[in-house]
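Write out the bound-state structure for LCLJCK34.
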Amino acid sequence: MKLRGLYAITDSQLLAGKFLAYVEAALDGGVTLLQYRDKSSDEARRLREAEKLYELCSRYKTQLIINDDAELAARLGVGVHLGQTDGPLTSARALLGAKAIIGATCHSQIELAEQAAKEGASYVAFGRFFNSTTKPGAPAATVDMLAQARKRLHLPICVIGGVTLENAEPLVAHGADLLAVVHGLFGADSTQEVTRRARAFNDLLKSSV
Ligand SMILES: Cc1ncc(COP(=O)(O)OP(=O)(O)O)c(N)n1
Ligand SMILES: Cc1nc(C(=O)O)sc1CCOP(=O)(O)O
Ligand SMILES: [Mg+2]
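---
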């Protein structure tokens, strides 16, 4: 499967009171990967919400990815995204199987991405490219580094951190396959606007194949 397109990531605070409506609006506009990202320790709620997203993603034929939690991903039979301190990629691969989508945070370090590739990652994520209200303290990455990464890596490259419709084009031009977005997608006033943004992100990626 070709991993290219919009990678929508949920945020429990931003989506409070409109969680499923906004996620469905994004799926309606076209989402390649949907990440369930909830940093709380409320396991019961996390399972409930992840199950709802699983149903929704199945209807829209979108791949669900769980942030941080390989056990929850295994329970649902979906993919996982792991940061540098979220546990070994090799264990997640062993748990989830050869076909599962497993993503790895690599900040701005191509060496981390090469290591992740060796350990079985399906895609690598670089960021943060712009100021992010969702994760302001994430280490910064540059477009020059992205261009270098594109030359050296043969895996799909995901970019993250403050990505919006206004600033995404250079990232695509320098080799990004997946645009991972929270606020630039879900920080909208209506479901219609979420759907419009999702379509527009996909158009950006299509026009540069
Ligand atoms: C697609 C994608 N890229 C990077 C991250 C960040 O992962 P991590 O560094 O583990 O930070 P948290 O998201 O867990 O706070 C991500 N979640 N998704
Ligand atoms: C979860 C996350 N990880 C980042 C990284 O750089 O690793 S930036 C980020 C937040 C992405 O949200 P927004 O699109 O609202 O900036
Ligand atoms: Mg993490």
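---
The mean pLDDT is 97.
The CA atoms of residues 20 and 52 lie 8 Å apart.
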